[in-house]
Amino acid sequence: MSGSHTVAAIDCGTNSIRLLIASADSDGRLVEQARELEMVRLGQGVDATGSFRPDALERTFSACRTFAQAIADHHCDRVRFVATSAARDVSNRDAFFAGVRQALGVDAEVIDGMEEASLSFAGAISGIQVIDEPVLVIDCGGGSTELVLGRGSSIDSRVSLNIGSVRLRERFLHDDPPTVEQIDDARKYVREALDSCPVDVAAARTVIGVAGTVTSLSAIGQNLTDYDRAKVHRSVLTVGQISDLAGKLLSSTVDEVEQMGPLKRRRAEVLCGGAVIIDEVCRRATAGKLVVSETDILDGMALAMLAQGS
C-alpha cells in the first residue's frame, strides 16, 4: 500500500452516518486523517412504514454535504459509500440514491448483512490485539446486529440478525422509561433471534464489540463527561457491568440517559434497545467480558480500498 493514497469511507446506518478519511503507512496500517459522525436517524419509522421519511432523508443529505467538503479538503483518491440495514428494504430507495449522488458525486451501495459482517470483523481485529481465539465480533447497529466468529483474519461463521437498537425501541420499548412487559417482550425477541443463530457465541474466547451502543456503554461505565476515543478503545466491560448498565438504562428516561455520559440525543433515545442486545449476546458468551473497539466497518472499508489501490 502506498501512503500517497487517501480514501474516504462512509457508513450510513439506521441511526448514524459516519466518515473515515485515511491513508496507509509503509506497513499497511491505517493512518487516520479525519473521522466524523452525525446522528441522522435515517431509519426513523422504517420498521413500521417500510419507507424513508422526508425529514430523515434531508438530515442524511445535509450530513453528506458536510462530508463532501471534508473529502474535497483531503483530496481523496477514492470514496466508498455503503448503506446497511435501513436501506435494504425501503420502498423509496431511489430518492435516497439520488440525494447521495447529488451531495457526494458517488453512488451509494446497499450491502447485505454478510458483507457488513465481514467488513466489521476486518475493522475490529485491525485495532485489537487478540490473544485468545476464536474471537467473536459483535456489531450492534440501529436496524441489525452482525455476529462474526473467526481466527486471525479468517472467518468461521457470520450472521446478520434483524435486531437493532432503533428497531427494538420502536417495536417494543415504547414508554419512557419502558415497562417491565415491554422489556420482557424485547428480550424475548432478541433471545429467539439468538436461539436460531448459526454463530456459536459460546465458542468465543475473546469477544469484541464495535459501534455506537458498545462505545456509549463504555463511556457511561467510565463516567466520561467528554467523549475520549483513546479511553474507550480497548476498554473492557464485564458481563456483570453490561447487565447493570442495561438495567440502569431501561429504568431511566431519555432525559436521564442523556445526562449519564457524552451522548447525543438520538443515541440516548435508543441506547436501551442496544444494551438489551449486547446484554443478551454476552450472557451466552463464556469469555466473561467484552473488549470495546473504536475500529469497525469504516476501518475495514478503508483497508480494503487501500489494498485495492495498491
UniProtKB/TrEMBL annotation:
It holds the Pfam family Ppx-GppA. CDD domains: ASKHA_NBD_MtPPX2-like. This is Ppx/GppA phosphatase N-terminal domain-containing protein. Residues 33-306 form the Ppx/GppA phosphatase N-terminal domain.
